[in-house]
Amino acid sequence: MSKTKEAKSKVVEPKSNAPLLIIAGVLLAAILGGWYLYSSGKSSGAANSNSAANRANTAKTSAIPPNAPPGAQPPNQAGSPVAAVKIEEFADYQCGACATAHPVLSEIKSMYGSRIHFVFRNFPLDIHDKAYDAAVAAEAAGLQGKFWDMQNLLFTNQQAWTAASGYKATFKGYAEKIGLDVPKWETDMAGLLAKNRVDEDKKRARALGVGSTPTLYVNGNSIPFTEMNVQALKGIIDAELAKAAPPAQGATAPSAPTNAAK
Questions:
Q1: What is the pLDDT of residues 150-192, one digit of tens each?
Q2: Are strands 85-91 and 76-79 parallel, antiparallel or unpaired?
Q3: How far apart are CA 74 and CA 256, in angstroms?
Q4: How many CB atoms lie within 10 A of CB 58?
Q5: Of 17, 47, 168, 230, whose CB neighbour count within 10 A is largest?
Q6: CA distance 148 to 95
């Protein structure tokens, strides 16, 4: 064999760097992917936290405009008009959520009595075909001092009369049950006074931007539906009562803090 051929046979082929590059690329991708997931998760968590905080703040600070229409006067009310805590409900008799909230708010009225001023406002929604007539039926009963009695029957029997084609006859049965002068009630149902009261409440609701039912305000602050339970409302009302309570006699202001070393 010639020296030239022997030299060629001894030449070593250079090793490829491809495996190292692949491994380095995989490691870099893993690092970048982990950093992205961490960053996006952190920002998403912050966004969700801010969104929840904003919803809570909105729910607690939507004050009623001072120039809003007053609604029907005198309103359908319970408790004391001079109480430190005013609760105003806007509801629709054909609304399932309103029927759910009804026993809760009835318990609140019973629990606090004259320590609160509770006002009910009619806000029959256009999507409910019988809601306006139900509101007029309650207002006509109110003209004989039986508003709350009719309201209770309408909410507690909601499924029955909403499914009935002759629902007005059902309302008449309720009027008889609570001891109304039925001919007068029927006249008031057909007249303008009861309807005007419903319409005045609707004007107030629209001015306040009420878009759904039930909508509840406590001292002018909107309360989310998720807090329309006895425990949550009790906490809100108690806090409002505490803010309005005069300082106890003999109470002294806390002493100023001091930074002096002892």
A1: 999 999 999 999 998 899 999 999 999 999 999 999 999 999 9
A2: unpaired
A3: 49
A4: 11
A5: 168
A6: 17
What's the pTM?
0.72
**In what order do the strands lie in the sheet containing 116-122?**
76-79, 116-122, 85-91, 215-218, 221-223
Q: Could you give the CA distance from residue 154 to residue 131 in angstroms, rounded to a whole number? A: 10
Which helix (H) or strand (E) covers residue 117, if one does? strand 116-122
57 CB burial (10 A radius; 0-12, 13-18, 19+): exposed
Nearest to 152 by CA among 194, 103, 114, 119: 103
Given a contact cutoff of 8 angstroms between Cβ atoms, the answer to whether 193 and 143 are in contact is yes
10 Å Cβ neighbour count for 71?
25
Give the span between the Cα atoms of 124 and 143, in whole angstroms. Answer: 19
Closest CA to 227 of 219, 61, 218: 218
Work out whether strand 116-122 and strand 215-218 pair parallel, antiparallel, or are unpaired.
unpaired
End-to-end CA, the chain: 102
Stretch 96-115: mean pLDDT, rounded?
98
Sign of CA dihedral 72, 73, 77, 80: positive
How many Å apart are CA 84 and CA 218, to the nearest integer? 10
Query: Which residue would you say has higher pLDDT here, 57 or 101?
Result: 101
State the Cα torsion 168-169-170-176 to the nearest 10°: 110
3-class DSSP state for residue 148?
helix
